[in-house]
Amino acid sequence: MHKSRLFAVVAILTSGGIAVRATASDLPRPKENWKDMGVVETSASPHARLHAVPVRAVRMRDGFWLPRMEAARLRGIPRLLGLLEEHGVADNFRRISGRKQCERRGPYFTDSDLYKWMEAAAFVLQWKDDPAVREMLDKVIDEVVAIQNPDGYLNTYFVDERKDKRFSNLAAEHELYCAGHLFQAAVAHYRATGHSRLLGAALKYADYLTTVFGPGRIEQADGHPEVEMALVELYRTTGRKEYLDLAGFFLDLYRFAARTQIEGHAVRAAYLCCGGADYYMETGKQPYWEAADRMWQDMTGRKLYITGGIGATSHGEAFGAPFDLPNATSYAETCAGIASGMWNWRMLAATGQARFADEMERVLYNGFLSGVSLEGSEYFYVNPLESAGGHKRRPWYDCTCCPPNVLRMLASLPGYIYSTSREGLWVHLYDNNELTWRLEDGRGVRVVQETKYPWEGGVTLTIQPDSAAEFSVFVRIPGWCVEPKLRVNGQDIESPVTPGTYCHVRRSWTPGDRLELDLPMPVVVQTADPRVRANLGRVAITRGPLVYCFESVDNPGVNVLAAAVPVDAKGEVESRTAYRADLLGGVTVVSVEAVASDYEKTSGGLYRPTRAGGMPKVRRVHLHAIPYYAWCNRGDSQMVVWVPFMPKD
Amino acid sequence: MHKSRLFAVVAILTSGGIAVRATASDLPRPKENWKDMGVVETSASPHARLHAVPVRAVRMRDGFWLPRMEAARLRGIPRLLGLLEEHGVADNFRRISGRKQCERRGPYFTDSDLYKWMEAAAFVLQWKDDPAVREMLDKVIDEVVAIQNPDGYLNTYFVDERKDKRFSNLAAEHELYCAGHLFQAAVAHYRATGHSRLLGAALKYADYLTTVFGPGRIEQADGHPEVEMALVELYRTTGRKEYLDLAGFFLDLYRFAARTQIEGHAVRAAYLCCGGADYYMETGKQPYWEAADRMWQDMTGRKLYITGGIGATSHGEAFGAPFDLPNATSYAETCAGIASGMWNWRMLAATGQARFADEMERVLYNGFLSGVSLEGSEYFYVNPLESAGGHKRRPWYDCTCCPPNVLRMLASLPGYIYSTSREGLWVHLYDNNELTWRLEDGRGVRVVQETKYPWEGGVTLTIQPDSAAEFSVFVRIPGWCVEPKLRVNGQDIESPVTPGTYCHVRRSWTPGDRLELDLPMPVVVQTADPRVRANLGRVAITRGPLVYCFESVDNPGVNVLAAAVPVDAKGEVESRTAYRADLLGGVTVVSVEAVASDYEKTSGGLYRPTRAGGMPKVRRVHLHAIPYYAWCNRGDSQMVVWVPFMPKD
Predict the structure, then answer these.
(1) Where are the beta strands (DSSP E) in B484-571?
(2) ∠ CA A459-A465-A466 to the nearest 5 degrees?
(3) ipTM of this complex > 0.95?
(4) How far is CA A113 from each of CA A5, B165, B302, rounded to the nearest angstrom?
(5) How far apart are the first and last CA of chain A?
(6) CA-CA distance, A580 to A592, in Å (whole number)?
(7) How far apart are CA A633 and CA A392, in angstroms?
(8) What are the pLDDT digits (tens) for B80-124?
(9) Is the CB of residue B366 less than 8 Å away from at least one CB of chain A?
(10) 10 Å Cβ neighbour count for B321?
(11) What is the per-residue pLDDT for B603?
(12) Do B554 and B626 touch, CB atoms closer than 8 A?
């Protein structure tokens, strides 16, 4: 039944245009305007202003992100699967299918870790036909679908002696959260391959959920939101309104539309907002949008690290009080940064407003990317903005939610660069790549993007429509830049080029037209709202989209935690920049004039009168800063983002 | 039986000398060298270098402490008893004696809150024959002794349905902790009045404990140390070695003598060390002393706030990691400060070493005294060193351990000023008072102390021995002072006058001899060991024994949390001082040159480029500082102890 319905849906949706490449030949090819992002629908979302471009429509070229995506593909994906095997996460499935005799291992929600790995692998297959990844993924799918109950239920925890406990402890035991990740993996796999095996299992499970949950049935939502966005995604994939309605039912149980502040567990809160934004894009119900926007305002105005990290406190992995953003003890879980990125992407799709793209970029280049080592298979769970040492990325955590989440974000990254709307094409992020896609009127278009971003702010976009035609290109002008310039074929454009907006370039485009964007990247000194007590009297250094940090390994002989930066009355520091190809995979180093304080380490007691030698010796130095995302890749070190400043006469 | 044994003991100990005034006539007068401190024995402790002076031997005159003691007597004592009644703590006793039908209320350990109140009231009666206090205390004693079990057991929680649970959950339920506070209250009451009613009940309970606990009986200690020092005190009071042995038994269960670091719950750890030090002073067993000293070194070298507060973290109300001493989130429970004071007093008694007196003074004037309002009946539970507002003293807490603990410390304060040793007299603390006591050779001595301490460092001690005689006076030279001077009858003394020592003045004293101490009190700038990350790049201001803080109410228009202090290469700040009789009960205000940063409060977003107006405007101001203990007495305010410094050219 599921297979036949699925095929029918595909048949309905199939239409002309550029065919999406499918590796499968045994299935109808997916319709081209199906979503490849696993995140937000494009043409099928009637209340979204923007529509996503499939991951496979964007070919990344060597630049900033491709080496990281390749690290994920070549090292992250296989190494994490090995660890999921080693820790029994895959065996939990074999145990039920009878393929292996063993105890269940890992947290009750660890199925979701495997599902996120599957989604990551499926995204890889959308941009790289990697036989090794395909083989790994096929084997895992085989293990997963083998344990589906005849009624559709699929979970390794609520079996045997816990069989009767299904949906009995939703508040704590993440049952629907696991289901949501299964659904997302299934959609990503179907889009990658055209195969319906995993998607069929997901739909069977989702159908079961619609018979179990709802008014007059179980009227309870999961303690960990996630299934809502997955259900909307299944709705987008199949057109089955029951899934959308179930998502709305859960959102109402969370009283989503009545919420005014973002609070509690950061990943849960942001996933919930993803679901709310998704639901809005399909239904157009304004209260859901307004709640999402209110919470976004609360987050970005009062509860956000400059790195884009969210969830300040380890107590409940939660948002802290407004403006309570400690640096050394910041939690800023990697998963929460990812959740924020996903949420901002949805808000951007709904509106086309640049404020959401700015926040998405902030977290991608800083608080998300810090979550993974340069080598690609070690991860931070928490992302502090200051460390006295002892912090370390690890390949595995007992609660190993972050590692596969990092992989799926990296693997899906090509999908975040462009969108389409009725007016034309949108460019959100800058990196070397080539888009081969179509506008919403069906016209084919290629875009070649060339840049040294984020190290330099020059970007060239070569626009290749199938034939000359009038349409719009919306070019994102990041909120962080000053005096940006945009030219078409060497001519300054007439529209204003305003930071924090999309520059709307409407013209008749001829194949080979060149858009040249210039985003000057001076070293910028940032202060925080004074209600952020942790940053009072402190400044942070940014350049372009990157937050910088001072790491002890770059500053031998200086206590980076005790250094201060003189800032003149214009708010400027004395600085210089240098690109270093040999350092940390290639980074621009920012060096600033600073004052180092040399304390006597071990003498003088815990408290020392300055008069009696307790005063640290002060000397001028140049402090070297690296991008925050790259810290902690060279052994144990001390690190600080927010450094004290002193007025410079 | 108890009464007769008690009388026998009293008879044995009674000897000549100055009689301690007792209000009771129905009992033999207590022997004069019995301890009045409820803290450490004097002549009876063979391994103590110093011996305490009874509380009643010191008559406080108007100065720094007397108004606070009077506030405790006149407002703190009656108001807290009212709240203990209101919250059912006294009713818990009436419920068992059948005098009232009601439910038990409050935490399982709340008996101890009443016992601490009783001890405080008893200490008041040692220096002030206050009929109202006597009447309140007599009534409470009547309620308490009425519920003693025939076997001696006395507790309001382990009755009725929990009757069989006696001593079954020592780790969590504070049963012996309550017993310890009962014993201390009983000793204090006996010393105040000569009445044995409460002491008799305590001894009966203690005798019962000796039959229940011990090798081959229950071999478990309480989760909250306390009873150990109380048992030693009962031993000192009665000479019954069983009590001392039981204290040693418990100490060994805690592996006290093997401990190397101070850790865990701060009050428990410090009370345990009190017990260990007490046990050492009676037994001379060196490992107990060495453990206490090791833990003291750990505390003062790595885990102590400049205010004397201990227990940095709210997690378990515990000591944090070494050097982890956050300011805004410091816990520094008032009870922990008191426990540290009590522990330092014991270490001082054991050795006569000034380092312990320095720490006792530090906590008394700062981290302890901040625990109570100037008005005398509102209390801090936690004592942060920085606050963005919202902190408030309260008359009551659901766990109301701190309020009665503050009262008993204030009420017992006269006992901490002097000691005796075989050589003569010791002076530890400075305030206006009159001592009428005797040296250990039995010679009567009066000392009149006159000073404006802690506002000025001049102290005059007029020594009045019964007749001219050679003996020593040990004058404490605080560790914080610079270039102190000490004169006898106008002549500089020959011995060195070294900060952080006792100056040993041995001579033949004639009635009317005057010791004049001069302790210069410049404004001192302090830095912390650089391993205290919270204080890197920051300084604190102290003067004399007082830690100062900048409170917003004294600095209108300045964000005190964003101000910085220029410090020159010599470690000096520009400052002036002024005594203000009208302010906060009379304080010396310290004003320092500083740089205020005026941030735009509400505009500009959470993060702001300094170039675009995000740079705070900087201006020179004079910041006014008040003693830390006095903060938060004028409504809600912001406060900071450790302020950023900047090098001054």
Answers:
(1) 485-488, 491-492, 501-509, 513-518, 523-528, 538-543, 546-551, 565-567
(2) 150
(3) no
(4) 29, 46, 41
(5) 77
(6) 16
(7) 9
(8) 999 999 999 999 999 999 999 999 999 999 999 999 999 999 999
(9) no
(10) 11
(11) 66
(12) yes
Contact B102, B88 (CB under 8 A): yes
What is the C-alpha to C-alpha distance for residues A534 and B328, in angstroms, rounded to an integer?
10
> Which residues of A are known to be catalytic?
317, 401
In this predicted structure, the answer to whether residue A446 has a pLDDT above a threshold of 60 is yes
Cα separation, A103 vs B627, in Å, equals 62
Instruction: Give the pLDDT of residue A14.
Output: 26
Contact B176, B221 (CB under 8 A): yes
In this structure, the strands spanning B469-477 and B501-509 are antiparallel
The minimal CB distance from B606 to the residues A304, A570, A571 is found for A304
Give the integer Cα–Cα distance in Å for A347 and A354.
10
- Read off the pTM: 0.86
The full 3-state SS of A445-502, as one line of letters, equals EEEEEEECCCCCCEEEEEEEECCCEEEEEEEEECCCCCCCEEEECCEECCCCCCCCEE
Question: Are A561 and B608 within 8 A, CB to CB?
Answer: no
Per the structure block, which two tokens stand in for A301? 């105005």
**Best residue in B536, B541, B641 to probe A by mutation, most A CBs within 10 Å?**
B536
Q: Give me the residue label for tokens 């001890």.
A: B119
Burial class (CB in 10 A: 0-12, 13-18, 19+), B335: buried
* Bridge partners, A426 (sequence order): A419, A474
Burial A306-318 (b: 16+ CB within 10 A, else e): bbbbbbbbeeebb
Using alpha carbons, select from B436, B435, B438 the residue that is nearest to residue B421: B438
Q: Is A73 exposed, middle or buried (0-12, 13-18, 19+ CB in 10 A)?
A: buried
- How many A×B Cβ pairs under 8 Å? 163
Query: What amino acid occupies position A549?
Result: C
Q: Do A607 and B540 touch (CB under 8 A)?
A: yes
- Tell me if chain B has a CB within 8 Å of the CB of A607: yes
Stretch(es) of chain B classified as CATH 1.50.10? 3-25+37-159+168-416
Stretch A219-223: mean pLDDT: 97
pLDDT digits (tens, 9 = 90+) for A493-532: 988 999 999 999 999 999 999 999 999 999 999 999 989 9
Report the distance separating Cα B109 and Cα B346, nearest Å.
Answer: 26
CB B486 within 8 A of CB B503: yes
- Fold topology of B3-25+37-159+168-416: Glycosyltransferase (1.50.10)
Is the bond preceding residue A150 a cis peptide, omega within 30 degrees? no
B258 touches chain A (CB under 8 A): no
Q: What is the 3-state secondary structure (H, E, C) of A399-446?
A: CCCHHHHHHHHHHCHHHHCEEEECCEEEECCCCCEEEEEECCCCCEEE
Residues 279-318 in A contacting B (C-alpha not used; CB under 8 Å): 300-302, 304, 306
- In angstroms, rounded to a whole number, what is the distance separating the alpha carbons of residues A331 and B625? 34
Q: Say how many C-beta atoms besides its own lie within 10 A of residue B86's C-beta.
A: 12
Residues of chain A with CATH 2.60.40: 418-518
Residues of A whose CB is below 8 A from B644: 537, 644
Q: Which CATH number fits domain A418-518: 2.60.40, 2.50.20, 2.30.30, 1.20.120?
A: 2.60.40
Facing A533 at nearest CB: one of B527, B561, B564: B561
CA distances from B294 to A601, A648, B247, B268 (A): 21, 46, 20, 17
pLDDT at B601: 65
Euclidean distance between CA atoms A175 and B105, whole angstroms: 40
CA distance B545 to chain A (A): 13
**Residues in A touching B610 (Cβ below 8 Å):** 524-527, 539, 567, 571-572
